[in-house]
Amino acid sequence: MSDPVIYVCPLATVPDAIRKVRPSHLVSLLDPESMIETPEGVARERHLRLGINDIAEPYEDLVVPEARHVAELLNFVHGWEQDAPMLIHCWAGISRSTAAAFIALCALNENYPEDELARLLRQRGAHAYPNKLLVRLADDLLGRKGRMQAAVEALGMTSQGQGQLFAIPALHSAGGKAAR
Fold first, then answer.
1. What is the pLDDT of residues 5-47, one digit of tens each?
2. Calpha distance 95→92 (Å, rounded)
3. Distance CA 150, CA 145 (A)
4. What is the pTM (predicted TM-score) of this model?
5. How far is Cα 6 from Cα 20, in angstroms, rounded to an integer?
6. Measured between alpha carbons, how far is residue 76 from residues 9, 81, 138, 147 in Å?
7. How many CA atoms lie within 13 A of 71 on its CB side?
8. What DSSP assignment string belongs to 82-105?
């Protein structure tokens, strides 16, 4: 078995990414009006569809991310067998999807420093700018005592404006290398 990998991409590249990386699991984080059906190549029961807007506070007529959305993501991640990649996408591949990838990394690597996971995320995807509300909700649910939030804050803004497909190893050991 190869090392488990999480891929992140924007919506526009999902079909190509599915053909290229052959994920067993897919996470879609899109506003409810833009939500996609399960694409060919992914089993419906392995497609998590979270209908949320990319916002950090309530806004009229928009769906704000809530703890229940993050709990669904965490349950989905923990149900991933890790024998094939997981693909995570949002509209642009910059905010919601990178937050979900960071949350997945933290959930799968309980004893690994959050700041190192956040830096690895930014190294692999220079455009990554995780949605801070999703991260805050996950920080609370995972009992990380603000460390996830601090790690994302420390990343700062990004000057890279366009999301693209990138990969990040899902499992990490305390030595800073991907676990086998």
1. 999 999 999 999 999 999 999 999 999 999 999 999 999 999 9
2. 8
3. 10
4. 0.94
5. 13
6. 18, 10, 14, 22
7. 5
8. SSS-EEEEESSSSSHHHHHHHHHH
Whole-angstrom distance, CA of residue 92 vs CA of residue 53 = 12
Length of the chain: 180
Query: Which of 27, 29, 83, 81 minimizes the C-alpha distance to 54?
Result: 29
- Beta carbons of 53 and 62 less than 8 angstroms apart: yes
Helix, strand counts (H, E) of the chain: 6, 5
141: which 2 tokens?
């649910």
Q: What is the pLDDT of residues 156-169, one digit of tens each?
A: 888 777 789 999 99
47-52 LR contacts (CB < 8 Å, sep 24+): 48/72, 48/73, 48/76, 52/96
The C-alpha R_g of the chain, in whole angstroms, comes to: 15
Token couple for 99: 């937050």
What sections of the chain are H helices per DSSP? 14-21, 67-78, 96-108, 114-124, 132-142, 147-155
